[in-house]
Amino acid sequence: MERRRDNKGRILHDGEMQMKDGRYRFKYTSWDGKTKVVYSWRLNHNDRAPVGKKRTESLREMEKRIQADSFDHIVTNGGELTVLELVNKYVATRVGVKLSTKMGYRTVLNFLEKDEFGKRRIDLVRKSDAKIWLIKLQREKGKSYSQIHTIRGMLRPAFKLAVDDDLIRKNPFDFELVNVIVNDTVRRDALSPENERKFLKFIKEDRHFSRYYEGVYILFNTGMRISEFCGLTLSDIDFKKHYITVNHQLQKKAHVGYFIETTKTESGNRKIPMTPEVEACFKKIIENRKPPAVEPMVDGYTGFLYFDKNGSIMYSLHWDHYFKHIREKYNKIYKIQMPFVSPHICRHTYCSKMARSGMNPKTLQYLMGHSDISVTLNTYTHIGFEDAQKEIRMLKIV
To answer: Fewest CB atoms within 10 Å of the CB: 183, 214, 260, 354?
Structure first.
């Protein structure tokens, strides 16, 4: 039986043929039982592409990959999924996530819809491609380390899903981000005890900002997240047993409005003992509380502590602005400038104070609501030379 040949006299294998325009075609049965074809202007890797035609994989290189995929039960061509389609598939598997997490997913998906990388076929993405893309996001598109961390935070598990589904062999995003792009995140240090005293004293004595003194004092002396503090209601403060119940947080997003979420982690559910000073601050807040005629309710919660001049519940953005304006006013008056301070810096400061005082690390982990003690010790405790020097002096070396 005479074998089929191409126009160069080379014998063609089963499933191969050369078309009238010179292209080579290979027909095969895919993993799902469907008949599929691939095309190339080149039969093997030594052939040149015709003038004016793009050099792509040769037909027999494609065949080898298809056969290898079939042997390893890998879906050929990544099931033809694009990066965007894969991430959408991953998001579809994420049930029961918080609303804020869903909104984060949507932000990344919107970005991938506009970026060319989202259109790439997943099996054609190599680890070097992933790294170069992230580098370009930082250098050419001005994305911050935090933004890129969020994007990679979705792509890595999405590609892991593709590996688990036998769509690809390796996860191209399985690498340490810090080894690829520059971490440009600005370190936010805790305030020194002196600066904390100065900041609180300034607020207390300022005619305009003194109305926020109690709230700021509580943030510096409980370590609550600002969203947890804003979510507190009258029923969360127990003056008889002297503790605050923290089991939810207040959020607000554009196009959504106010909503209640559980704490950041399960460990966030906790009871924080109140010092007499913190308790006095809460009593004054409640005494000066001016809710609107009809108390607002958010997802079944009512009795919030602070309201703005329009009668809306104060949430994290309000406090971010207050801290910004307080610091700006302080620095206009005094030559020695107050460093960056925000509600989150209050949390850092509280944790550092408690660590410096010698509090048991596990107790501090509980009060901070951390699920992992390494976060308590490595991220939120800012210990410096003076602290080390003090510890050394206290040691009794035998």
So the answer is: 183
